[in-house]
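Lab notebook, page 48
Experiment: co-folding of the full assembly
Goal: obtain a model of how the components sit together before planning crosslinking
Operator: M.T.
Materials (sequences as entered):
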Amino acid sequence: MTKSWFEDNTLSLAQRLLGTVLVHDSLEGRTAGVIVETEAYLTDDPACHAYRRKTLRNAAMFGPAGSIYVYRIYGMHQCVNISGGKEGAGEAVLIRALQPLNGQELMSQRRKQVIFNEKELCKGPARLVQAMGINMTMNHWMIQGSPLYLEPGLNQSFDIVQTTRIGLTKGIDLPYRFYLANNPFISRK
DNA sequence: CGCACGATGCTCT
DNA sequence: GAGCATCGTGCGC
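Observation: model returned without errors.
Model output:
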C-alpha cells in the first residue's frame, strides 16, 4: 500500500480498507484484526472534524495520506482514523470495528475483560483502540512504516453494506458508513 | 436481546 | 459553556 493508495478518494478508501489487516507490534506483543467497519469523513461534510478549519486537534486529518489521527471523545475514550486525500484536504476514515486475528489474550487484558469474550474485543471505535493499544502519542504517525500498520487482507471477495453513520447529530443522512455483510464483529447493524 | 442514562475532560464558540 | 465520530451498567422483556 503506497501513499497514492491512501491519497485516492477518501470515500473509496473507506471501502478499500475493509478486509485489510490492522497490526500493532508493541512491547507487550502483537495484536491484529481485519477491518470490518469504517466511516468516511470528508471536507465538505458537516460531521467532519475538519469541516470548519485546521486546528490543533484535527491537524492530522490535513496531513499526508496515511497519517494516523487519534482523538479523544466524551472525555474518556479515543478513536483512530487514517487520513486520506491530498495533503491539506482534511479527510479521514474512522475505523469502527475489527475482527480479531492475533493477540486476543493481550486484547482481553487491555480491555480489562473479566471473562474472555472475543466478540466484544474490537466491537466499536473506542474498544478497538483500547484492545490494540493505540493511544494519543500515535497521532500524526504514518500508517506506512510505524509499529501500527496495515497488511493486505486475504483476497477473498465479500459484500459491502453502505449505510448512514453512527452517533452523529450533523450529516446524519450521508451514506458514508461501510461494513462487511454478514460479519458478526461489526459494532451494530 | 434492547433501551436509557451517566461518566468525564477537552476543544471550540 | 455547550457539545461531543462512546461505552458500560442496570433494568425490562
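Interpretation: The mean pLDDT of chain A is 97.
Next step: discuss with group before ordering constructs.
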